[in-house]
Structure formats: C-alpha cells, structure tokens
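Incident review: delayed structure delivery

Summary: a single-chain prediction request sat in the queue longer than the usual turnaround. Root cause was a stuck worker, restarted by the on-call engineer. No data loss occurred. The affected request and its eventual output are reproduced below so the record is complete for anyone auditing the incident later.

Affected input:
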Amino acid sequence: MANLGIEINRKCPIRFKVFIIKTLDSVYCSPKCSKVVNKRKKNKEKKEALFVTYAQNVPGIREYLTARQVVAIYGIERSTLYYTVWLS
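Output delivered after worker restart:
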C-alpha cells in the first residue's frame, strides 16, 4: 500500500486499544488479538456441535426435560433458563 500521508485510527475489539491501521482490512491491533478471535470462534463452533448432539439424543415425547436438554434444544444459556423459571 502506498503511503498517502493519511493515518486512519481504529479501535481493536479485543483490547479496546486505538491503533493506526497498516492496511484497509486491518481490524485487530496485533496477530495475538486475531488468534484470540479465531480461538473463540472455534470454541463456539464446538459448543454448538455439542448442543446439536445433545438435541439429537433427546427422545421425542417426554414429560420432563433436564436443564442440559433444554439448553441444547432451545439454544439458551443455563442462567437464562433458571431466571425464566424463577420469574414464573
């Protein structure tokens, strides 16, 4: 990229640090921050795959479901489930 004499600042979404971009595609301030994002993405994909596995193992008709099964079927957090039960 040719040096145009213009400095564009962005804020890194991981460390919330303001940095000068080197290319127009720059999103993160360092390769370390980029690796953190990739690791979080992989962990999220693994968690979703685990939820799909749990949901497939739930029998069709049940009178009651465990908290783990409800979280897997509906894709909500466990704390949200308990909060909703507490409100009703």
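Verification: The two ends are 59 Å apart (CA to CA).
Action items: add queue-age alerting; document worker restart procedure.
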